[in-house]
Amino acid sequence: MSNPKLPQILFFDFDNTLMDSKTHEIPQSALKALKHVHAKGYQLAIASGRNYPLLKMTGVFELLEWSGFILNNGQLILDHDESPLQHLTLDPKAIQEIIKQARSLGFNLFFSSPEGDFMDKEADDLMIQAHAFFNEPIPKIEVYTHQLVDKILVYAPKGYDYAPFKAIEGISIFPSVSTYADIASEGVSKASSIETFLKLKHLPHDYAAFGDSMNDMEMLEHARLSIAMGNGEDALKSIADVIAPNISEDGIAKVLKTLGYLEE
Question: What is the pLDDT of residues 109-125, one digit of tens each?
Fold first, then answer.
């Protein structure tokens, strides 16, 4: 039986929280632990920056019984059966400004679209590095002609501040641990869409959140119980209630035991 003193639904970031970017696999210890947690009556959900096709290709949907999915940093919410509960797209005016800035700086862009992912020019070293880090394919080249876009990635050197993009109205910027930043609609984050998901599912605003990077900041701040991975960003660890061991050191399984979700 679940412990009523613990949050009953757990939201997990995917890359470098559930899936190790070095092995491109979810540790077996994490899978085993999550199956036990679910069997005790807790709900499990994913909150990822990935879009649906790029998460689907990992096979994670079939590995466990998930209650829902927050994707594209909150732009897309899926129910347990992968049906959409919310799908937000970027403002076309903001997209044009993003393209203008990227071209002036020589940066490449990735467009996540319900009509099919694409990039606007040939992949450069920064894009290749980022996609290799996450084991994701390089998309086709296509011109933006007002397609629906639910997320954009802009590729820049590590440590870049993305100031020209932060100045664009109507968007939010989430720098990553690799050579890119996620761009979502202003005010949209994993936290805001978790809130929407919980309301739509008539669940209490009472959850645990697990993450490693800056796009997890809002959901850790709003969670009743926040867990940062030991391999995560220092800024995230500084606001977390608990710091888990590294993903490569069975971090998920160990921290679930520490928190009381699993027996010692």
Answer: 999 999 999 999 999 99
Tell which phi-psi region holds residue 74, choosing left (phi > 0), alpha (psi between -120 and 50) or beta: left
* Range 9-88+188-259 classified under CATH 3.40.50.1000: yes
Query: Given the DSSP bridges, would you call strands 43-47 and 68-71 parallel, antiparallel or unpaired?
Result: parallel
Q: Per residue, what are the HEC states of 179-224? A: CEEEEEECCCCHHHHHHHHHHHCCCCCCEEEEECCHHHHHHHHHCC
Long-range contacts from 100-104, C-beta under 8 angstroms, 24+ separation: 101/164, 101/165, 101/168, 102/154, 104/164
Q: What is the pLDDT of residues 12-60, one digit of tens each?
A: 999 999 999 899 999 999 999 999 999 999 999 999 999 999 999 999 9
Q: Please give the Cα distance from 136 to 188 (Å, whole number).
A: 24
Candidates 3.90.380.10, 3.30.1240.10, 3.30.420.40, 3.40.50.2000; CATH matching 94-185 = 3.30.1240.10
Total-model pTM: 0.93
Q: What tokens were used for 217? A: 């900041």
User: Looking at residue 60, what DSSP letter applies?
Assistant: G
179, 165, 156, 194: which is closest to 78 by C-alpha?
194
Domain ranges of the chain: 9-88+188-259, 94-185
Q: DSSP state, 169?
A: T
- The residue type of 143 is V
Beta bridge partners of 69: 46, 78
